[in-house]
Amino acid sequence: MKIPILKINQFQESESLNNFYINSFSNHINLNKKLLEKPHSHNFYLCVLFTEGSGVHEIDFNSYQVNSGKVFFLKPGQTHSWKFSKEPEGFIFFHSQELYELKFLDHTLSSFPFFYSNQNPPLLELPQKEIPALNLKFKEIYNEYKQQKLLKELKIINLINSIYIDLTRTYTANVNFKKLTSPSYLVILEKLENLINENFYTKKLPKFYANQLNISTKHLNRVVKKTINKTTNQLISERIILEAKRLIIHSENNLANISNTLNFSDYAYFSKFFKLKTGYTPLNFRKKYYEIDTL
Questions:
Q1: Residue ranges of the HTH araC/xylS-type domain (predicted)?
Q2: Which range is least confidently modeled, 14-28, 91-105, 160-174, 216-230?
Q3: Residues 6+ apart with CB under 8 A from 151
Protein backbone atom coordinates (compact mmCIF):
# COMPACT_ATOMS: atom_id res chain seq x y z
CA MET A 1 0.00 0.00 0.00
CA LYS A 2 1.31 3.43 -0.96
CA ILE A 3 0.50 6.59 0.94
CA PRO A 4 -2.47 8.18 -0.88
CA ILE A 5 -1.62 11.52 -2.51
CA LEU A 6 -4.84 13.52 -2.57
CA LYS A 7 -5.66 16.11 -5.23
CA ILE A 8 -7.96 19.11 -4.89
CA ASN A 9 -10.53 17.79 -7.37
CA GLN A 10 -11.07 14.69 -5.21
CA PHE A 11 -12.78 16.73 -2.50
CA GLN A 12 -16.50 17.33 -2.62
CA GLU A 13 -17.69 20.87 -3.23
CA SER A 14 -14.41 21.77 -4.93
CA GLU A 15 -15.70 22.19 -8.49
CA SER A 16 -16.46 25.91 -8.42
CA LEU A 17 -12.85 27.12 -8.69
CA ASN A 18 -9.88 25.28 -10.15
CA ASN A 19 -6.92 24.70 -7.84
CA PHE A 20 -8.70 25.94 -4.72
CA TYR A 21 -11.00 24.52 -2.03
CA ILE A 22 -12.43 25.83 1.23
CA ASN A 23 -14.95 24.46 3.70
CA SER A 24 -15.94 24.57 7.33
CA PHE A 25 -13.88 21.90 9.02
CA SER A 26 -16.84 19.87 10.29
CA ASN A 27 -18.41 19.82 6.84
CA HIS A 28 -15.06 18.95 5.26
CA ILE A 29 -14.65 15.92 7.54
CA ASN A 30 -18.23 14.73 7.04
CA LEU A 31 -18.14 15.02 3.25
CA ASN A 32 -14.73 13.43 2.76
CA LYS A 33 -14.56 10.69 5.40
CA LYS A 34 -13.35 8.02 2.98
CA LEU A 35 -10.49 10.18 1.77
CA LEU A 36 -9.39 11.22 5.25
CA GLU A 37 -9.73 8.05 7.31
CA LYS A 38 -6.14 6.93 6.65
CA PRO A 39 -2.81 8.82 6.68
CA HIS A 40 -2.33 10.64 3.40
CA SER A 41 -0.40 13.40 1.68
CA HIS A 42 -1.42 16.13 -0.78
CA ASN A 43 -0.16 17.73 -3.95
CA PHE A 44 -1.25 21.17 -2.66
CA TYR A 45 -0.71 23.67 0.16
CA LEU A 46 -3.09 23.48 3.13
CA CYS A 47 -4.07 25.86 5.94
CA VAL A 48 -6.57 25.05 8.69
CA LEU A 49 -7.86 27.12 11.60
CA PHE A 50 -9.49 25.38 14.57
CA THR A 51 -12.03 27.33 16.60
CA GLU A 52 -13.39 24.33 18.52
CA GLY A 53 -12.54 20.73 19.28
CA SER A 54 -9.61 18.72 20.53
CA GLY A 55 -7.51 15.82 19.39
CA VAL A 56 -4.19 15.04 17.75
CA HIS A 57 -2.80 16.00 14.36
CA GLU A 58 0.10 13.79 13.27
CA ILE A 59 2.40 15.30 10.64
CA ASP A 60 5.34 13.20 9.44
CA PHE A 61 5.37 11.20 12.72
CA ASN A 62 5.27 14.28 14.95
CA SER A 63 2.10 14.65 17.04
CA TYR A 64 0.52 18.04 17.75
CA GLN A 65 -2.44 18.84 19.97
CA VAL A 66 -5.56 20.25 18.32
CA ASN A 67 -7.45 22.96 20.19
CA SER A 68 -9.10 26.32 19.63
CA GLY A 69 -6.72 28.84 18.09
CA LYS A 70 -4.38 26.31 16.49
CA VAL A 71 -3.46 26.92 12.87
CA PHE A 72 -1.76 24.18 10.84
CA PHE A 73 0.14 24.49 7.57
CA LEU A 74 1.08 21.65 5.22
CA LYS A 75 3.25 21.64 2.12
CA PRO A 76 2.89 19.17 -0.76
CA GLY A 77 4.28 15.74 0.10
CA GLN A 78 3.90 15.85 3.87
CA THR A 79 2.03 12.89 5.35
CA HIS A 80 -0.60 13.55 8.01
CA SER A 81 -3.67 12.19 9.80
CA TRP A 82 -6.26 13.39 12.33
CA LYS A 83 -7.72 11.89 15.51
CA PHE A 84 -10.35 13.90 17.34
CA SER A 85 -11.57 13.43 20.91
CA LYS A 86 -14.01 16.36 20.67
CA GLU A 87 -15.89 17.50 17.56
CA PRO A 88 -13.70 19.97 15.62
CA GLU A 89 -14.82 23.19 14.00
CA GLY A 90 -13.11 25.93 12.08
CA PHE A 91 -12.13 26.38 8.45
CA ILE A 92 -9.81 24.62 6.05
CA PHE A 93 -8.58 25.75 2.66
CA PHE A 94 -6.04 24.48 0.20
CA HIS A 95 -4.66 25.61 -3.11
CA SER A 96 -2.06 24.80 -5.72
CA GLN A 97 1.27 26.55 -5.91
CA GLU A 98 0.34 27.95 -9.32
CA LEU A 99 -2.86 29.59 -8.10
CA TYR A 100 -0.88 31.79 -5.73
CA GLU A 101 2.41 32.34 -7.51
CA LEU A 102 0.97 33.22 -10.92
CA LYS A 103 -0.72 36.19 -9.27
CA PHE A 104 2.27 37.19 -7.13
CA LEU A 105 5.18 36.77 -9.51
CA ASP A 106 7.65 38.51 -7.22
CA HIS A 107 6.57 36.67 -4.05
CA THR A 108 6.64 32.89 -3.63
CA LEU A 109 4.93 30.71 -1.03
CA SER A 110 8.33 29.80 0.38
CA SER A 111 8.65 33.44 1.48
CA PHE A 112 6.25 32.61 4.31
CA PRO A 113 8.14 31.00 7.22
CA PHE A 114 5.62 28.18 7.75
CA PHE A 115 6.07 27.08 4.12
CA TYR A 116 9.73 27.98 3.83
CA SER A 117 11.48 25.02 5.40
CA ASN A 118 10.50 21.67 6.88
CA GLN A 119 12.66 22.71 9.82
CA ASN A 120 10.06 25.33 10.77
CA PRO A 121 7.10 24.12 12.88
CA PRO A 122 3.96 23.44 10.81
CA LEU A 123 1.68 25.07 13.35
CA LEU A 124 0.90 28.29 15.17
CA GLU A 125 -1.10 28.87 18.33
CA LEU A 126 -2.94 32.17 18.08
CA PRO A 127 -3.56 34.42 21.06
CA GLN A 128 -7.26 34.15 21.88
CA LYS A 129 -7.83 37.81 20.99
CA GLU A 130 -6.67 37.16 17.40
CA ILE A 131 -8.98 34.21 16.69
CA PRO A 132 -12.22 36.14 15.87
CA ALA A 133 -10.59 38.41 13.29
CA LEU A 134 -8.86 35.53 11.52
CA ASN A 135 -12.04 33.46 11.60
CA LEU A 136 -13.87 36.33 9.87
CA LYS A 137 -11.29 36.33 7.07
CA PHE A 138 -11.75 32.59 6.55
CA LYS A 139 -15.53 33.15 6.46
CA GLU A 140 -15.10 35.90 3.89
CA ILE A 141 -13.14 33.54 1.63
CA TYR A 142 -15.77 30.85 2.13
CA ASN A 143 -18.62 33.22 1.23
CA GLU A 144 -16.76 34.45 -1.84
CA TYR A 145 -16.04 30.86 -2.87
CA LYS A 146 -19.74 29.92 -2.72
CA GLN A 147 -20.85 32.81 -4.94
CA GLN A 148 -20.32 33.67 -8.59
CA LYS A 149 -19.09 37.26 -8.67
CA LEU A 150 -16.83 39.29 -10.91
CA LEU A 151 -13.08 38.84 -10.15
CA LYS A 152 -13.87 36.02 -7.72
CA GLU A 153 -10.49 34.29 -8.05
CA LEU A 154 -8.53 37.49 -7.58
CA LYS A 155 -10.56 38.38 -4.47
CA ILE A 156 -9.91 34.93 -2.96
CA ILE A 157 -6.17 35.06 -3.68
CA ASN A 158 -5.88 38.51 -2.13
CA LEU A 159 -7.70 37.28 0.99
CA ILE A 160 -5.37 34.27 1.19
CA ASN A 161 -2.40 36.61 0.93
CA SER A 162 -3.81 38.81 3.70
CA ILE A 163 -4.26 35.77 5.95
CA TYR A 164 -0.72 34.54 5.27
CA ILE A 165 0.72 37.98 6.04
CA ASP A 166 -1.18 38.20 9.34
CA LEU A 167 -0.12 34.67 10.29
CA THR A 168 3.49 35.40 9.38
CA ARG A 169 3.52 38.41 11.70
CA THR A 170 2.23 36.29 14.57
CA TYR A 171 4.51 33.36 13.65
CA THR A 172 7.58 35.63 13.76
CA ALA A 173 6.47 37.84 16.67
CA ASN A 174 9.42 36.79 18.80
CA VAL A 175 12.03 36.89 16.04
CA ASN A 176 14.85 39.41 16.35
CA PHE A 177 15.06 40.62 12.75
CA LYS A 178 18.42 42.28 13.37
CA LYS A 179 19.90 38.82 13.95
CA LEU A 180 18.30 37.12 10.96
CA THR A 181 20.51 35.04 8.70
CA SER A 182 21.50 36.62 5.40
CA PRO A 183 18.97 36.13 2.56
CA SER A 184 21.61 34.42 0.40
CA TYR A 185 22.06 31.71 3.05
CA LEU A 186 18.29 31.17 3.20
CA VAL A 187 18.15 30.75 -0.57
CA ILE A 188 20.90 28.13 -0.42
CA LEU A 189 19.10 26.25 2.36
CA GLU A 190 15.85 26.20 0.38
CA LYS A 191 17.64 24.89 -2.71
CA LEU A 192 19.43 22.29 -0.58
CA GLU A 193 16.20 20.97 0.92
CA ASN A 194 14.67 20.69 -2.55
CA LEU A 195 17.73 18.86 -3.86
CA ILE A 196 17.68 16.44 -0.93
CA ASN A 197 13.99 15.72 -1.53
CA GLU A 198 14.72 14.91 -5.16
CA ASN A 199 17.90 12.86 -4.67
CA PHE A 200 18.11 11.35 -1.17
CA TYR A 201 17.36 7.81 -2.38
CA THR A 202 20.65 7.61 -4.24
CA LYS A 203 22.75 10.60 -3.12
CA LYS A 204 23.60 10.46 0.56
CA LEU A 205 26.82 12.49 0.77
CA PRO A 206 27.12 16.29 1.24
CA LYS A 207 29.66 16.56 -1.60
CA PHE A 208 27.00 15.81 -4.22
CA TYR A 209 24.73 18.61 -2.95
CA ALA A 210 27.58 21.08 -2.65
CA ASN A 211 28.54 20.36 -6.27
CA GLN A 212 24.94 20.86 -7.40
CA LEU A 213 24.92 24.24 -5.66
CA ASN A 214 28.35 25.19 -7.02
CA ILE A 215 29.81 25.77 -3.56
CA SER A 216 32.31 23.90 -1.41
CA THR A 217 31.21 21.27 1.10
CA LYS A 218 32.72 23.41 3.84
CA HIS A 219 30.67 26.45 2.83
CA LEU A 220 27.51 24.36 2.55
CA ASN A 221 28.01 23.11 6.10
CA ARG A 222 28.58 26.69 7.22
CA VAL A 223 25.26 27.74 5.64
CA VAL A 224 23.31 24.90 7.25
CA LYS A 225 24.93 25.47 10.64
CA LYS A 226 24.25 29.20 10.52
CA THR A 227 20.61 28.89 9.41
CA ILE A 228 19.29 25.88 11.36
CA ASN A 229 22.22 24.84 13.59
CA LYS A 230 22.57 21.44 11.93
CA THR A 231 25.01 19.80 9.52
CA THR A 232 24.37 18.83 5.92
CA ASN A 233 24.77 15.19 6.93
CA GLN A 234 22.02 15.63 9.52
CA LEU A 235 19.61 17.06 6.95
CA ILE A 236 20.25 14.18 4.57
CA SER A 237 19.92 11.59 7.33
CA GLU A 238 16.68 13.14 8.63
CA ARG A 239 15.13 12.95 5.16
CA ILE A 240 16.18 9.30 4.76
CA ILE A 241 14.76 8.44 8.19
CA LEU A 242 11.49 10.22 7.45
CA GLU A 243 11.05 8.23 4.25
CA ALA A 244 12.03 5.03 6.05
CA LYS A 245 9.35 5.67 8.68
CA ARG A 246 6.75 6.33 5.98
CA LEU A 247 7.61 3.09 4.21
CA ILE A 248 7.77 1.05 7.43
CA ILE A 249 4.33 2.23 8.57
CA HIS A 250 2.40 3.00 5.40
CA SER A 251 3.61 0.41 2.91
CA GLU A 252 3.17 -3.35 2.77
CA ASN A 253 6.80 -3.95 1.80
CA ASN A 254 8.87 -6.14 4.06
CA LEU A 255 11.77 -4.47 5.84
CA ALA A 256 14.40 -5.96 3.54
CA ASN A 257 12.63 -4.50 0.51
CA ILE A 258 12.41 -1.12 2.23
CA SER A 259 16.14 -1.28 2.82
CA ASN A 260 16.64 -1.95 -0.91
CA THR A 261 14.27 0.85 -1.88
CA LEU A 262 16.36 3.28 0.15
CA ASN A 263 19.53 1.98 -1.51
CA PHE A 264 21.23 0.52 1.54
CA SER A 265 23.79 -2.17 0.80
CA ASP A 266 22.00 -4.66 3.05
CA TYR A 267 19.29 -4.84 5.69
CA ALA A 268 21.76 -5.13 8.59
CA TYR A 269 23.32 -1.78 7.68
CA PHE A 270 19.88 -0.17 7.26
CA SER A 271 18.72 -1.50 10.64
CA LYS A 272 21.87 -0.24 12.35
CA PHE A 273 21.51 3.21 10.72
CA PHE A 274 17.83 3.44 11.65
CA LYS A 275 18.45 2.45 15.27
CA LEU A 276 21.32 4.93 15.57
CA LYS A 277 19.03 7.77 14.43
CA THR A 278 15.78 6.78 16.18
CA GLY A 279 16.67 4.48 19.07
CA TYR A 280 14.59 1.66 17.55
CA THR A 281 15.15 -1.08 15.04
CA PRO A 282 12.78 -0.85 12.04
CA LEU A 283 10.77 -3.81 13.37
CA ASN A 284 10.47 -2.34 16.88
CA PHE A 285 9.49 1.03 15.43
CA ARG A 286 6.65 -0.61 13.47
CA LYS A 287 5.46 -2.50 16.56
CA LYS A 288 5.65 0.59 18.77
CA TYR A 289 3.74 2.74 16.27
CA TYR A 290 0.84 0.30 16.00
CA GLU A 291 0.74 -0.23 19.77
CA ILE A 292 0.28 3.53 20.25
CA ASP A 293 -2.19 3.67 17.36
CA THR A 294 -4.50 1.13 19.01
CA LEU A 295 -4.54 2.76 22.44
A1: 190-288
A2: 14-28
A3: none
pTM of the full structure: 0.86
The one-letter amino acid at 80: H
- Domain range summary for the chain, segments of one domain joined by +: 5-171, 183-293
How do residues 176-217 score in pLDDT, each as one tens digit? 555 556 778 888 998 999 999 999 999 999 999 999 999 999
Q: DSSP readout, 42-89?
A: ESSEEEEEEEEEEEEEEETTEEEEE-TTEEEEE-TT--EEEEEEEEEE
Tell me which amino acid residue 191 is: K
Asked if the model's pLDDT at residue 295 lies above 50, the reply is no
Contacts 24+ apart (CB under 8 A), 245-249: 245/60, 245/61, 245/278, 245/285, 246/3, 246/60, 246/79, 248/282, 248/285, 248/286, 248/289, 249/39, 249/61, 249/286, 249/289
> CATH assignment of 5-171?
2.60.120.280
Q: Which top CATH class is 183-293?
A: mainly alpha
Instruction: Give Cα separations from 77 to 35, 42, 63, 97, 255 (angstroms).
Output: 16, 6, 17, 13, 22
Give 294's pLDDT tier (boundaries 50, 70, 90).
very low
3-state DSSP assignment of residue 92: strand
Check if the beta carbon of residue 47 is closer than 8 Å to that of residue 70. no
Query: What is the pairing mode between strands 41-42 and 80-95?
Result: unpaired
CA distance 205 to 232: 9
Q: Provide the Cα torsion 138, 143, 148, 154; round to 10°.
A: -20
Q: Give the Å distances, CA to CA, from 23 to 28, 72, 138.
A: 6, 15, 9
- Which of these, 83, 69, 204, 206, lies nearest to 127 by C-alpha position? 69
